[in-house]
């Protein structure tokens, strides 16, 4: 097993990130491919987790009005259960907070809600049906954030 590298994504990573997004969101969650947007200009930043040269995880942040959203969070199914998602979440959230953003909003699947709530996030609404499963609105404020140990 190679070491996992976390970093801000660069242009050469975008094709692999899009393939990962399609595999997870369309292939596993039944979200139509046309709703899976290409990693483009509307995003503030993408981050990725790499094992060797392979993208095994990715997440993005974007703005809707003045609100910062965090999502498109995906880890390749063969690499789950190793803490990669939690490490990628911490890395990306700390990067956003270091840039001066005070609050981050997301609508997330159950596994992501669990990670974000361990980091200080709060559920701010009821789960709603979304293709194969539900999404729950969650907010994470900078003052509530606590880095997950390990």
UniProtKB/TrEMBL annotation:
Keywords: Transferase. SUPFAM superfamilies: Acyl-CoA N-acyltransferases (Nat). Residues 4-145 form the N-acetyltransferase domain. One of its GO terms (molecular function) is acyltransferase activity, transferring groups other than amino-acyl groups. The keyword Glycosyltransferase does not apply. Gene3D superfamilies: 3.40.630.30. InterPro entries: Acyl_CoA_acyltransferase (IPR016181), GNAT_dom (IPR000182). This is Acetyltransferase (GNAT) family protein. It comes from Enterocloster lavalensis.
């Amino acid at each position: 097993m190679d070491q996992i590298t976390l970093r801000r994504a660069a242009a050469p990573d975008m094709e692999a990130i899009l393939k990962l997004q399609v595999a997870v969101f369309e292939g596993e969650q039944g979200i139509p491919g046309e709703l899976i947007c290409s990693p483009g200009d509307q995003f503030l930043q993408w981050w990725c987790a790499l094992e060797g040269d392979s993208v095994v995880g990715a997440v993005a942040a974007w703005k809707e009005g003045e609100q910062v959203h965090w999502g498109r969070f995906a880890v390749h199914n063969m690499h789950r259960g190793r803490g990669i998602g939690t490490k990628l979440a911490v890395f990306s959230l700390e990067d956003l907070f270091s840039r001066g953003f005070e609050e981050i909003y997301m609508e997330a699947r159950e596994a992501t809600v669990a990670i974000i709530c361990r980091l200080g996030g709060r559920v701010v609404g009821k789960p709603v049906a979304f293709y194969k499963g539900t999404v729950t609105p969650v907010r994470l404020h900078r003052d509530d954030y606590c880095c997950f140990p390990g």
